[in-house]
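Memo to structure team: turn this sequence into structure tokens by end of day. - J.P.
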Amino acid sequence: MTLTPEQQSEIDAQRASGTTTLRATAPGMEQHLYTAIPVLDHGFIRVIDYMGDDAAITQAARVSYGKGTKAVSNDEGLIRYLMRHWHSTPFEMCEIKLHVKLPVFVARQWIRHRTANVNEYSARYSILDREFYIPAPEHLAAQSVVNNQGRGEALSGEEADRVLRYLRDDAMRAYDHYEEMISDVGQQGLARELARMNLPANIYTQWYWKVDLHNLLHFLRLRADAHAQYEIRVYAEALCEVVRDWVPFAYKAFEDYRMGGATLSSGALECVRRMLKGEEVTQENSGMSKGEWREFMGVIEG
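Reply from structure team:
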């Protein structure tokens, strides 16, 4: 990722203009403010603003306990209890606003998480930059033969070279035509809102994305998962590091109960109980389908 001199100057100015505040701040998050964290070849995430910290979560939870019960639990223990029992409202008391630069096809996956506020760079009014996501060779993969949404083995040799060449050449050709169509030199020039439809899905866009912690953790649970598409997963992984520094108690509970935990059906729990009693349980006598049994054994065997 390369920042323009103007972008770097803006970041330097923002980080230099410290202000005094009476509100709670998170030291770890203060270190992230405004700084661009590189993702993919031209992308980044930047924390623009945030509200709340671990204490804000416990403060919101304790308000419902009644007067005189403030010390019911220590903060970390209470946060773990809230996470363990799927209490969502206290986590909604924390919010974060991000500036994200990402390929359009990644943005179309990201926007499916609708519980956020989004304002995207408009190609109706502005001209998009000549920046495209081109995968590194090790991330060029064939279609998976077992998962319609997944990737198989990496491409190699002449095929990999040809695919990379197509991706670069097609993107550049489309942008050349885009520039030519919107130019008003010797012609009227096509409206930007029409010319943009010729641009490929790997061109970069930017947006501001504001979300509360509860919905952000839901996003991370799905998109930082090993099964998520690589190009959105790396954004989620970068965000995980930010959240870990922002709300360390909440993030540790999230790691333990969401990312590292597992949810079992009533039938799966019954199978576990039978196994603990020494009974031999198989897919045939478990009451599960083959797919359910395969996932169950993946949890049990690790």
